[in-house]
Amino acid sequence: MKLGFIVLFSMLVIMLNSGTCYAQGPISLPLQQESAIKEFNLWRRADSAPPPATLSDIRQLYQASPTVDSTIGLRGAFVTKLVIHNTSNNRERWFVNLHANYLDQGQAYWQSTTDAAVGHADFSQGSATNAKLAHAQAFPLYIESGDTVELWIHIEAKVFSVPVTIRLIPESQFYYQQFQDNILTTISITVMLTLALMAVFTYIRTRQMIILACAGYVGLHGLGWFAASGQLSYLFNISAINPAYAGMLIFPFAIAAASQFTKMLFDCPQDYSKLSKFLHGFSLISAALGILMWVLPFATSYLISHLIAALWIPISISIGFFMLGKSDYRAKYYLVGNLTYGLALAYYVLSHTKLVNGILLPELVVLLALAVDCICIMLSLSEWIHLQQKEYYRSYTLSRIDPLTQVGNRHLLSETLDKLSSAYYLTFIDFDNFKQLNDTQGHEQGDRYLIECAGIMQRNLQGAGDVFRTGGDEFIWLIVRKQNDKNVLTKISQLITQTEQELRQAGWQQASLSYGVANSYESVNLSECLSLADKRMYEHKRSKKEGTTSVKQ
What we know:
Immunoglobulin-like, six-stranded mixed beta sheet, Rhopdopsin 7-helix transmembrane proteins, 16 helices, 553 residues, 53% helix, 3 domains, alpha+beta
């Protein structure tokens, strides 16, 4: 069954490869390097019956099957035949490598024309005996010196997502490729899953939904490729199902998480309501299609996943450019990641034609690009967190710092006292004649007076206590002591006198402060302590008017 998108893709591959002939005649070994047998007219379409159990079965199947131009986009069973001749004086061991992601069944039979010996290999996706190679299947083939071998290969899958090219690889070269492909695949998937776990732990601590969406974005991509690469099949040898298909079925949920992440990353609900609704709708549609795909034929699910990807890549890149144009620098990492991923997908498509002959498997390129994308997504999340921290600090400052004098306010005083386990002294300070200053010189001068006085208090009290503004011209000093200390009262009196002197030296000749002191030993709570200090401040103010200067402590 050929579906719309797959048909177009297949036609593109066939047209771009047209005019190239790939012979199926004898292949002489040894070769200077590996040999790639392109799949144009290579495969014959067989009946989707039980896999051939004998050499005779596969021979009959081959004879009865019609040739197809390409397997890409098709499903079911295919069979081919190769004739290989070893011209060297040594027995050669080669690996037959088939580039196929989703391979439910893979059987190979070969027979020597010299001694009629028959060999067999099972390289199905879930086989416990085949060579383990990410994104592909392989099996070894021995050929005696001067011998000619006829090789029949039978494959079956729910869909062939790439052309099934056959490569004959020398043993030593195969092990190098196996190491390269497996290690790069493992590193890329490990990076994604590690980043996802970090995001999950961060979400547990912060409960921020954007972090959970990021974990889904990164982690579901990692899990999907873990399955699609065949590594999940290596861990769980389940004959009833092929775990590799799970990668494609997980993909829509990864895109749903990516859409939600994008919406929250750029604060779309607050700043871009239409874009927010679009991304939310795209996320819901992707998730709904993801659920539906588990009950649809895999060929249909394969098409749906690729259509979602074909839509999401330009959407994400466009959003990245748009936000960067708005000087939203969270977009710089987001855009780099999605551009990298998009270019890798373009390479993936072109690699199926004769236009590109890369040194890496297309799946590896996409996987490495996706790992880079996930790193960039985490960096964009870190930018978001940094902005949230700045906003939190700004809000924290506005709610706890007096905007005029830049000293703590009553709210910060209460918070500070709530955290104390030691004794404390409160000094309630009021400016004498402050109303007269405002009335005669104006509120601007009054503000300057408050600002300068607060600065002098902070300098004089530095290391001994903290200054808080709790009202118009009312300030409170907080001094913490582990025990009752009568020397504190003398120190406070000296600091008040010093503050008045410095204010007068600064040009405020009318500067005069009334104050009262109370401590936690003589009060039950903060409110009572403040009330007592306030009462004593008014007693000090009254005594100054009556010609005395004593302060009741």
